[in-house]
Design goal:
276 residues; Rossmann fold; nine-stranded mixed sheet; S-formylglutathione hydrolase activity (chains A, B); homodimer; serine esterase (chains A, B); alpha/beta
Chain lengths: 276, 276
């Protein structure tokens, strides 16, 4: 593992690290914020999964999450959104290939050799964090934005017992019924839609829900509402009697100005679960 | 004036606007955060001047200032750092020409026709803000980072009575004695160093100081300490018995991770002066 940078930040350290990933069969880079408390021993961790076109860097520099994670003594991990490098397949569209891994293990060519973001985020990266940093893997929570909100919700519901709480900012809530989803799940997983169900938050909510608290925020002026389909997830959550809070925020759009506005709420929500 | 974008942000609006600048003889773009309170009438304003290579956008997306400005009911203005456009002279170096206006009115060619950032920030942009937005020009404060910290300190001391408070993050504190300064002041103002004195915070502090509170933060691990020369400004401020707080922050560098860490303190400092 190589240290790309480490900056003092809110009393802790914002680091960027690169490592050879076996899941993705390429070098992967992630951001990790460790609060001051990590100097004295393992701290709980909040995963932040990013959206289409992002790298590890966008949320790390624009979401303002360190402010509140430092206050709560929580680590933040910012994974990349896809495998990277010249050997990795790509597509001209912004929403397929690099920057658009959708947090699945691809089974279809040309994606299958590298696009294994589910395994990367669910297995390889947590193990790496636990071995190399003062991270308490018994206290994990997860959030994300847009495609990353989809990732957070599907990982949380797909790995029962792993995360104490899950939240999402403007998640892609029902990808198997959206152009943000059908295209990518078809490309990565093939045309058998039965294989998509494990990667659709609304279907997972209908099927099993989440064994902890859920928080989602979506802006009423989000320019992608028709693709996000929050109404599907809201309906499924209420029908299941899922413990949680599903909010529509008046006037907010899809940008990081929206994400940063509600970040304090989300980190406080996760802190309550992580320290409860 | 053209609206480039407006995003809901912490209950207010983060806007980006472009206008034909007479001071710079080109189109100029700036960011403006208006808190919720601006809907009910004029609010005080905190100027944030950015550093070398930045546009209006860097601090607007990375400094986290809106969090605290919203809490305090203060507007934030993020000017660009130089004139822009094909007609504007430039230099291959990152620290001269575009992105490096140094907040002076250039008198030397090829810079003189457009590089009038002092007039732009001191005269044209405040007038434009007062005419078009709910900004109370009787309650202004100013801050900035690096070259922008230099700008904040020199504007505050050079315009007595204009700003109620001034702060700076890692300011270029003594440019006439630094390679971040001698090159640019020489290029923009010519070789007569007497003309530089109005643009050197340390010399201004020795000469007259500031008629209000001053706050500066600089990291002990700042990679540019030899160019910033905080020791010169510290010495001058103490010798003058300047009201103020000059801090060296252990472990912090020159990045926005440093700026965002101490932004809450700076906004609270200015709020006290603006509402006092």
């Amino acid at each position: 593992m190589q240290t790309q940078s480490e900056n003092a930040c809110f009393g802790g350290t914002q680091g960027v690290y690169t490592h050879a990933s076996s899941a993705c069969a390429c070098d992967m880079t992630f951001g990790l914020f460790l609060p001051e408390e990590a100097r004295d021993g393992p701290v709980p961790v909040l995963w932040y999964l990013s959206g289409l076109t992002c790298t590890h860097e966008n949320a790390m520099t624009k979401a303002g999450a360190q402010t509140w994670a430092a206050e709560q003594g929580i680590a933040l991990v910012f994974p990349d959104t896809s495998p990277r490098g010249e050997a990795v397949a790509d597509d001209e569209a912004y929403d397929l290939g690099k920057g658009a891994g959708f947090y699945v293990n691809a089974t279809q060519d040309p994606w299958a050799p590298h696009f294994r973001m589910w395994d990367y985020v669910a297995e390889e990266l947590p193990a790496l964090l636990g071995e190399n940093f003062a991270i308490d893997l018994d206290r994990q929570a997860i959030t994300g934005h847009s495609m990353g909100g989809h990732g957070a919700l599907t990982l949380a519901m797909g790995l029962p017992g792993r995360f104490r709480s899950v939240s999402a900012f403007a998640p892609i809530a029902h990808p198997s019924a959206s152009d943000w989803g059908r295209k990518q799940l078809g490309a990565y997983l093939g045309e058998d839609e039965a294989t998509w169900a494990a990667h659709d938050a609304t279907l997972l909510m209908r099927e099993a829900g989440f064994d902890g608290p859920v928080l989602t925020d979506t802006g009423t002026k989000d320019q992608f509402l028709d693709l996000l389909k929050p109404e599907a997830l809201f309906e499924a959550a209420a029908a299941r009697r899922q413990q949680g809070t599903m909010r529509m925020q008046p006037g907010y759009d899809h940008s990081y100005f929206f994400v940063s506005t509600f970040m304090e709420d989300h980190v406080a929500f996760h802190a309550e679960a992580l320290y409860g």
